[in-house]
Amino acid sequence: MELTSQEQTMLDGKEGYAVRKSMEILVALGEIFGAKNLIGVGGVQVAGVSYHNLGDAGLEFLNSLAADGKVKVLTTLNPAGMDLENWQQLGISPEFAEKQNMVIDAFQRMGIVISCTCTPYLIGNLPLYGEHVAWSESSAVTFANSVLGARTNREGGPSALAAAFVGKTPNYGLHLDENRVPDVHVQVNAELTKLSDWGALGYAIGKKAENKIPYITGIKTVDLDELKSFCASVVTYGAKPLFYMKGVTPGAEAQKQPQETLTIEESDLKIAYDAINDDVTNIELVCLGCPHCSIKEISEIATLLEGKKVAEGTELWVATSRTAKQLADKRGYTATIEAAGGKFACDTCMAVAPLKGRFKSLATTSAKGCFYSRQNLMKTKMGSIEECVDAAVTGQWNN
Ligand code: F3S
User: Fold this and answer.
1) Does the predicted model carry a pTM greater than 0.85?
2) Counting atoms of ligand 1 from 1, which one is nearest the CA of 292?
3) Which residue, by CA, sits nearest to atom 4 of ligand 1?
4) May I ask the CATH architecture of the domain 5-177?
5) pLDDT of 130-142, one tens digit each?
6) Closest ligand 1 atom, CA of 351?
7) How far is CA 349 from CA 58, 180, 277, 378, in A?
8) Of 166, 181, 227, 346, which one has the fewest beta carbons inside 10 Å?
């Protein structure tokens, strides 16, 4: 890989340990993937924030970088293993909280914005069309590439951090025009009537398109929350973190519709629901907000919970960014949700909190949430916000 003299200086250690280590990571990655050079990035999103996933070795690595450097570009964080302010209410142990706070402290010393959300685009880390970034949360990577038209590979936590310290990333993969061409036309003939249908659609396209870039037609209407749900699902279940949706995403009209065609029918959505839903009736955890809830979703949850109570033996978590929660506080949604017995899970989510073995069953709107919760030994049900709130209030899946 060709380096400029300034990049060589960074690799030689003239800007300190954190930058040298970061350059070593970026150069190694660039050489593996055949990048010719590094390109500047406008922002970074770092995943790998939960102490649950990092452990002591990860914490030590972060401390070594934090001791000797600051990030060069706007850098935000993915969800952590707990609500940073309200962890006791979510049943997190003091031992875990202490370690998680040490992780956050390391990121803070690096100059990273402690946003702890997988929807950085809703809280100010919003790249422009065509802008190069280095993001490492799969749903957000897919959203950035597809809905925003920005350019990012699906970075790992260390390579995203390295890009933040250097302000650059290796120029390969989805940064290059030739790797952003759709390979398969997906004609959607199914009606999509509720949020979870977008998770089911992501499952169906992910499975059928495998590692191809889909060019999707047949979508009549879609909103922001549905797109973020689809992004999370399609990349979890198979496809590359980039799709085009005719009439919806930028750049779709400029692409040629691929010859190879797949169709998605109502029966494909049913197959998706059948695969995602387990045989379970009693619901111990209802988690809404995967990806993190927007303020609109929080308002819908609050409206549905007005005058109701979460069933005994069931917990309702609303996972969101602290920024959205602060808006919810001001609008009175927080008070309504908490009066019903619901809990906010800011800064965290069901996949990265240490939940293994704590709940036996989950109801959620999210196909991605179901995928990861099964790894936490939960049986899963996926449905609309209404169906999930009903499960929270009755303690049962009634649909
Ligand atoms: Fe976000 Fe966690 Fe879902 S990171 S996309 S809420 S699994």
Assistant:
1) yes
2) 6
3) 118
4) 2-Layer Sandwich (3.30)
5) 999 999 999 999 9
6) 7
7) 20, 30, 20, 14
8) 181
